[in-house]
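Researcher: I'm preparing a figure for a lab meeting and need a structural model of a single chain. I don't have an experimental structure, so a prediction will have to do for now. The sequence is pasted below. Please return the structure as tokens so I can convert it later.
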Amino acid sequence: MLSIVPRQYFLGFIPLAAGAELITVFGVVNKASGIYGLLSIFTGHPITAAQLVLNIVSLLLLPVFLYALHNVRRQNALPVVAFSYIYFVDMLANLAFTIYFSVTWFRVFDVTAATEAGKDTSSSLDTASERGLSITIIVLVLLFKVYFCFALFGYARMLVRKAGLRADNGEGKFTKQLQFVMLAIAPSFWRRGGRRAGKGRMVNTLEEGIEMF
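Model: Understood. Here is the structure written out token by token.
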């Protein structure tokens, strides 16, 4: 039930559709928080260039997440697939920012801890436990983000199979090209038959895609 790409349930007991909606709502709230980050500029609160970039990107992605929430609720397969890829790229960017901010914070933390340890030797144990707790929390948050990404792809796959979408049966020029690009990646993942069915149509799909473009 807790497979790396959920098939029916999110976290083992929540319906996958409800889980995908919950993940998208969390994403909307997260992107909206970029407003408060930009407000710090006007309040005089110090902000680094990395934090500024992260807040700007969050606000730019907020309409995308709101539109995705609408499509997740309506179970529109192709927009949900597109959102899954966007969420994947956004997750990678967030992982990079999280690692950067964590390394920066630990450097400051180590300097502060070394200063306090020079004054009070009994604080070294507390410093080590705080550092370990911080690392544990960061790792857990990163793992949850990765799992959320897999859950969205699982929900998108469920909608694709339900709608009978394939890389070669899109409608409309732009939609057809977009559908081909998104579903031609790992076709065995999207098709109901799995890897064996995906291999059977790999050559034909590539030929049809070349003719399409």
